[in-house]
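Our consortium's second objective concerns turning raw sequence data into structural hypotheses that experimental partners can test. To show how far this objective has progressed, the report includes one record in full. It was chosen at random from the queue rather than selected for favorable results. The single chain below, 190 residues long, was entered without modification.
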Amino acid sequence: MNKKEIYEHLANIYLDASSNSSKKRSKLKSLPKAAQGLLIFGALIVVLGGSLASFTYTKKHNQPNQIALFLYQDAAKINFNFDPAKKEVFSLNLKQLNLSRYKTLSFSLKKTNSSDIISLRIEFINRFNEKSEVYLKDISSKWTEEKIDFKNFIGLRDWSQMKELSFTVEEWNAREKSGIVYLDNIRVLR
C-alpha cells in the first residue's frame, strides 16, 4: 500500500465509525486530494497525540533543553489519617519501564496544613525487587518543584525494568495525625 491508499483506508475507517458517514464521505470526496490528506493527517495526529504527549521539552532560565517523560501528569492526593492506619501510599505501576537513560526524578508537591511537619518517603522498585528510598523532609505548604538525582537511590543497580514508584506519608514522619499532601507532574528527566 502506498501513502495515498493508507490515508484513504484510514479515512474510510474513521468515517464509517460515525453515524453520519454518508454525508461526511460525500463531503470528503468533494474536497481536493491535498485537503483529504490534511484531514486524515490531522485525525492521525489527534489519535497519536495522547501517546506522544508523554514526552516534552522544557527550557528554564538559560538551562539546556531537557527531555522529560511524564509518569503521572494529573494531581495526586495522599490523604492520610493515622487512626488506625500507620501509613498512606500513592504508587505508580511503572510496567517494566526502562529508565536507564534518565537521571532525575522531578515533581511538584505541597501540604495543606502549614503548621504540620511532614517527611515524604519516595521509593523505586525494579523487576528484581531491588528497593531504594529517599526521604524528602519538611514539605512546604506552597507548591515547590523537587528534583532528586537517581544517584540518591542507593541500592538500585538496574534501571532498565522498573516496577514501581511510590510516595508514602508515615505516621512517625508527620506531626499531625491527619492531613493531605498533593503531588503533580511526576516525571523523569534526562
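The partners drew two points from this record. The domain at 69-189 is CATH 2.60.120.260 (Jelly Rolls). Residues 10 and 111 are 48 Å apart (CA to CA). Both points have been shared with the crystallography group to help prioritize constructs.
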